[in-house]
Amino acid sequence: MKPFAYVRAGSLAEAADAYASHPGARYLGGGTNLVDLMKLGVERPTALIDVTRLPMGGVTELPDGSLRVGALVRNSDLAAHPLVRERYPVLSQALLAGASGQLRNAATTGGNLLQRTRCPYFQDVSKPCNKREPGSGCGALAGVHRDHAVLGHSEHCVATHPSDMAVALAALDAQVELYGLAGVRRVSAAEFHRLPGDHPERDSVVEPGELVTAVLLPAATAGVPSAYRKARDRASYAFALASVAVVLAVSDGVVAHAGIAFGGLAHRPWRARRAEEALVGAAPTGAACERAVGLELEQARPLPGNAYKVPLARNLAVDVLERLAHGGPAPHGEDA
Q1: Are 75 and 165 in contact (CB under 8 A)?
Q2: C-alpha span between 233 and 312 (Å, rounded)
Q3: How far apart are CA 48 and CA 27, in angstroms?
Q4: pTM of the predicted model, to two decimals?
Q5: Which among 82, 71, 161 has a CA at the least distance from the CA of 107?
Q6: Which of 316, 290, 166, 314 is nearest to 229 (CA)?
Q7: Exposed site from 40, 55, 139, 216, fewest CB < 10 Å?
């Protein structure tokens, strides 16, 4: 492991200043992804800016009924929080479907969002990877790509984002709060991560030196029926082959609101805007749900080894939509 400096920040301003004064620095929270990548030689930071002592560890109910989740709230604590379980069950279910209990106890809300979009080729420094080394090529395109993207990928990268939490946040219309030298700004969770395009090395819209300080869960989707479902190879710690987060409100027999996001299919959580538009104002029949999801997945461009992901994602989404629409218990968590 390459030697690095260590700075323990005492304030947000101190953290931003330390980052700016150490080109190649990284912020350190739970470290569950960053430290692993450092051990592999993929990440080689010049300095670690420890932000774990900053006051970003609480879940606060705001006057309008929304929740502000500090960036240092542990995944296990967020999943178990009574207001999250009551108002945003899709988020609690997604968190519990992600990683192992030990990792959830260490991983933070901000760190979960900022984990690298990655695949085995990214983590193996002997293999070509445009994300790790721009211009070196994408080993997965002509290699093993069973777990890779079917939506929004490019000739430069076909990796998928691994976060379960981020999929739920996208469906919930959550916002991510960022702090940097220019001040505070907020970004839609659905737009926080990037598609690869010509620059797959850039996972998110975070500017150099910016720090995730909080996630805001809106009052508008609080209490709306929701569920998360994930398919993976085994019931223990594994990334999604495909997953879906659904937030669905039905009023007077028609869909009043739909928030749908897929995981495991793209370089970022994939907000299913076409499917949502097709459902809102329509009766949530089985045929309508199938048509809406089909319209979304028409955009899929599967690779030779992962075409199975398209029907898998379709079946997951249609099943969750139908169950939520008719008030039944939506299956949640994972399908081994």
Answers
A1: yes
A2: 12
A3: 6
A4: 0.95
A5: 71
A6: 316
A7: 55
